């Protein structure tokens, strides 16, 4: 039973990483912007957060540095695609490639660095409950805050005027502009917030999830986060559920190895990516379902006055 409790705990940990990044990308896409640079943003944020903790010893400063790096890169991306009307997909890919190379260059001197011993988190009283205590109530605070944030995002998008305006910009920027809303500024703000969340995910990776720095340590999680927004049909609750599903698939690799299942490690390591392809293939069989939920102007440039 203890091994299954540890599997659930690891699933929540891995799912949190994907959920933070996916919720950020969902905010982007609700405003009509597709950012394919998530992988590069997360890598730069991971080294920024890790380096900050190395020099300051503060996790809070590390998370702030990761969010700052993510917001800065997203702001540059936003300026290019929103004001200069560069192609969103090409610019995002360029950002991802840049982030991979830049983080590798900056991180050379941090490969062997260590950060202070991680504190052990536990909710008093609840952490002593058999099975559930180990599975659920001994997580990093950010795991619980991510669930709270997902709930707050649902409320913001579907219960507030600001959320309605954000969604209207993603559905019909021309109509929003005609009503007097600053479409470009709203889109830029959404992109920056989304980038900051991707940055937080990158910092969480290098500070909490696997403390340390290695080149390309994000290992495709940025692309899985992008796929999750489609998998969840742009719904925050489904993003959270999907993140835990993919987190569980990732952790199943280690669990099966620990109980002696004789399956090639290469096959087990590929399971999260195979699951991503399978899920997207299944969803694509119902294009009407995607069309109903997908923001109508996603990926499309907006030209004021045209």
From TrEMBL:
Compartments in which it is found: Cell membrane
Keyword check for Membrane: yes
TM regions (residue ranges): 6-26, 33-55, 61-84, 91-111, 141-158, 188-211, 267-284
Entry membrane topology: Multi-pass membrane protein
UniProt keyword list: Cell membrane, Membrane, Sugar transport, Transmembrane, Transmembrane helix, Transport
Matches recorded under Pfam families: BPD_transp_2
Protein name per its UniProtKB record: Simple sugar transport system permease protein
Organism: Rhodoferax saidenbachensis
